[in-house]
Amino acid sequence: MNDRPKSNRKLLRSLEPYLWLAPAMILFAVFTFYPFLETIYKSFFIVDALGNLKRFVWFQNYTYILSDKVFVKAIGNTLWYTILTVPISKVFGMLLALFANKRRRTSVFYEAGFAVPMAMASSVTAMIFQLLYVPSLGFLNGFFGWKVQWLNNPKIAMISIAVIQIWLSTGYAFIFMLSAVRSVPQDVIESARLDGASEFRQLTKIFVPLTSPTMFYLIITDLAFSMMMMSLVNVLTDGGPQNSTITIMQYIYKQISATGNYTNANPAAIIAFILTLAASMLGFLWEKKGVHYQ
């Protein structure tokens, strides 16, 4: 008779972690997993503007969309944007963290200055840079005497947008990397200095390996964010000129908002997920060799 309460307590203890996770899992199931599975299912159908399924077509939607030159262009632009923004912003964040590593009386001022971009909304930042990029009255062309069409030249429009994201992401990377850099044991640094290690050697042999877990986290999260980018393009170029800045997410948005074309939008969303997953998997492959947890 006395064994039953004990068994009930053991059962409750074993279920306790799952009970704590249950609210979050329910929210994920309703707002993430179910819509995702529904999108996969609908991607194999012809869908009308109201979202009603009309005809099962197997992989014909995927074949059609991958033959769409605009969508292929969107894939290339998204990958190019990711390649530009992710590594550069992390390197800048690391360099700023190294600069701010030593605490000074004025540290609070430049540390806050480095972190300011993290508090800026993408839309507000886009409007500020849009004023800087104005060909005739913008600060950049006016100060340097240039005549560059920053957002109107198909060859440099995506680079101009990437510069904005690099500025935004650097502040976020700086916050994390500063904490990682300051957590490097001082006795390790002092030993390296006594052994005659140069600043560059200390960077490559001490700071980079010991801060690699933080760098890995930043890269993985930023990869997914960059692959899903749409806000800057929407505000600045709307995908132009000549589709030189259209991204996968903006392509999906246009398919739905302009024509209600869910037949194209659903497979495009799944392809975007597959590409993002592939990019993340490449990051995890790097983790095995490039990330040091001890």
Automatic annotation (TrEMBL):
<keyword id="KW-0812">Transmembrane</keyword>
<feature type="transmembrane region" description="Helical">
    <location>
        <begin position="112"/>
        <end position="136"/>
    </location>
</feature>
<feature type="transmembrane region" description="Helical">
    <location>
        <begin position="268"/>
        <end position="286"/>
    </location>
</feature>
<dbReference type="GO" id="GO:0055085">
    <property type="term" value="P:transmembrane transport"/>
</dbReference>
<feature type="transmembrane region" description="Helical">
    <location>
        <begin position="156"/>
        <end position="178"/>
    </location>
</feature>
<comment type="similarity">
    <text>Belongs to the binding-protein-dependent transport system permease family.</text>
</comment>
<dbReference type="GO" id="GO:0005886">
    <property type="term" value="C:plasma membrane"/>
</dbReference>
<feature type="transmembrane region" description="Helical">
    <location>
        <begin position="215"/>
        <end position="236"/>
    </location>
</feature>
<dbReference type="InterPro" id="IPR051393">
    <property type="entry name" value="ABC_transporter_permease"/>
</dbReference>
<keyword id="KW-0472">Membrane</keyword>
<dbReference type="InterPro" id="IPR000515">
    <property type="entry name" value="MetI-like"/>
</dbReference>
<feature type="domain" description="ABC transmembrane type-1">
    <location>
        <begin position="75"/>
        <end position="283"/>
    </location>
</feature>
<feature type="transmembrane region" description="Helical">
    <location>
        <begin position="18"/>
        <end position="37"/>
    </location>
</feature>
<keyword id="KW-1003">Cell membrane</keyword>
<protein>
    <submittedName>
        <fullName>Glycerol-3-phosphate transporter permease</fullName>
    </submittedName>
</protein>
<dbReference type="Pfam" id="PF00528">
    <property type="entry name" value="BPD_transp_1"/>
</dbReference>
<feature type="transmembrane region" description="Helical">
    <location>
        <begin position="79"/>
        <end position="100"/>
    </location>
</feature>
<dbReference type="InterPro" id="IPR035906">
    <property type="entry name" value="MetI-like_sf"/>
</dbReference>
<keyword id="KW-0813">Transport</keyword>
<keyword id="KW-1133">Transmembrane helix</keyword>
